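So, who can interpret the following?
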Amino acid sequence: MEIQYVDINNLILDPGNARFAELYSSSDREDDLIEYLLYTEAAEEIAKNISSVKQYYPDEVLWVIPHKDKFLVKDG
């Protein structure tokens, strides 16, 4: 399978993701989910750690599917 690069601005989170369902069920709005992940699940710290490494691991890619004019993040 070939890796395709997608602009980060074209990614949307899947509120139906089973991982999120275990953590969060208050709203279907992506902004609410992002806020929850940032402030309750320490996603900001994880993002900073990933950014500080400055290395890309092709075996840990995001899996996305086309969704309207964006891409829905299904895993990763």
Summary: The first strand starts at residue 11 and ends at 13.
